[in-house]
Amino acid sequence: MKQSMTFIPTLREVPSDAEVKSHQLMLRAGFTRQNASGVYSYLPLANIVLKKIEQIVREEMNTAGASELLMPALQQAELWQESGRWYSYGPELMRVKDRHNREFALGATHEEVITSLVRDEIKSYKRLPLSLYQIQTKFRDEKRPRFGVLRGREFIMKDAYSFHATKESLDEAYNKMFTAYQNIFSRCGLDFRAVIADSGAIGGTDTHEFIVLSEIGEDTIAYSDTSQFAANIEMAPVNAVYEKKTDELKPLEKTETPDQRTIEEISSFLNVTKEACIKSVLFKVDDRFVLVLVRGDHEVNDIKLKNLYDATNVDLATADETKEALNCVPGFVGPINVSENVEVVADHAIASVVNGVCGANEEQFHFQGVNIDRDTKVSQYADLRFIQEGDVSPDGEGTIKFAKGIEVGHVFKLGTKYSEAMNATFLDENGRTQPMIMGCYGIGVSRTLAAIIEQHHDENGIVWPNSIAPFQIHLIPVNMKNDSQKDLSEKLYAEFIEQGYEVLLDDRPERVGVKFADADLIGLPVRVTIGKKAEEGIVEVKVRKTGESFEVALSELQGLLKQLLGN
Prior knowledge:
Its EC number is 6.1.1.15. It catalyses: tRNA(Pro) + L-proline + ATP = L-prolyl-tRNA(Pro) + AMP + diphosphate. Homodimer. It holds the Pfam family tRNA_edit. Keywords: Aminoacyl-tRNA synthetase, ATP-binding, Cytoplasm, Ligase, Nucleotide-binding, Protein biosynthesis. The protein has 567 residues and is of the alpha+beta class. The protein folds into 3 domains: 18-237 and 402-453, Bira Bifunctional Protein, Domain 2 (BirA Bifunctional Protein, domain 2), CATH 3.30.930; 253-382, YbaK protein, CATH 3.90.960.10; 471-565, Anticodon-binding domain (Rossmann fold, 3-Layer(aba) Sandwich), CATH 3.40.50.800. The chain has 15 helices and 31 strands. Strands 3, 7, 8, 9, 10, 11, 12, 21 and 24 form a 9-stranded mixed beta sheet that branches. A hairpin with a 2-residue loop joins strand 1 (32-36) and strand 2 (39-42). Helix 1 (21-28) packs across helix 12, helix 2 (44-63) runs antiparallel to helix 6 (167-187) and helix 2 (44-63) crosses helix 12 (445-455). It is globular.
């Protein structure tokens, strides 16, 4: 491709609204332009990279036994109503009406559509298992789009779905997809971790996220410093063993604590440790009130609470709801003498608290000398807190550390969540009707593009891995008015293409400094510069990743390129 004939509008300055490196560099290097908040055009260079990522995805999906199809982005509301998600998905689902006032959704995901397709065609176990995938634009009305294409309202996604007659068949497909994902992200040059995750609005169990390590990531992962254990912080189990003190039990005593609401304030005011404080947090779990107790130095994990109750919605109780349930204001809530309409559950660490402190369900008062088994009724103990750095790893090997990351892929075992709701059944080998068992596997293709840039850049621009660079070689004649340089650049351009290389020829009438700055911004793996020594048959080769440069005779050029780029 000749640079004068394509569209690469580079920028010298960093756009003021671009917070992260991938967003900045995609704008500066002429890869994207914003059309609306969270909505972007992918310009020619970005489009090439997207197609390369898609090709890697296709190759690995096909190897895993999946077939590609393409489903509509415009989805009937009736399908979402069948699954129940029309009412539960939330405002992120973009809903529209046609001229006949019929309701549709712009596809945020495609579980409903694919389930309806398969249920209408597959009736026998003999046609299972079946794995299907697509690469398509998705739409989600994000409340706060940010970080460029990392969190947009329109994005490109690969979503795959598998259908099975048995759980063993699903396990086999899940493992194949897991391996395919590892291959995809490795081929894209990413440093990533596969972590235990929550299924969120998709549903299902036994899920893993694929997280690209990055300080700007919105996900926090907990990992062992000595083993392979890794999990999203929301899902990491806590296996701590808590030692209970043998102190003599003190009597329960109500103490005035004027304007002391937080754990920090209470521990300081009463001169006790945070570990001796009982943090009481009221939640609305679907249609019931649940009071969750954790130690003062811990935080309630609402995802674990949701999973404990297999709930659809878990929300922190409002001030009005707290008043209704406990006749109290937040900050003075506690588990003693609560209404029978409020269920009390506690994290395992609470069982070890002796002579603790908790709210008295009366404004400006707390209880001291609290001993849970004596003073209140806990319906059950469970793992209900977030894991912390320094905790023992759940697999018993090493201690936990935290890292930030960007989620680029997610694999789920959906089970029969959608097939039962939408009556997707088959006849088994005994002629009995059974719901299909499903799996779901997603990759954020456009998000992967940004994640690659987050990990592969320097102060001058993008540094593309060879496998997904828009071009392999940036061919730059210093002066297009010089006949020797112009002729040699055209000759090499034709030879490189004939040899199978992808080449971007900068034939623009620009100063060489501008060309070099743009080349660094764009970040192609190898730059070949044709300058004053063109008549001598010598060019300069520079490696973008290392900064190494060589003066190379034309007779040695092909060998060096094979060494740097492969055949």
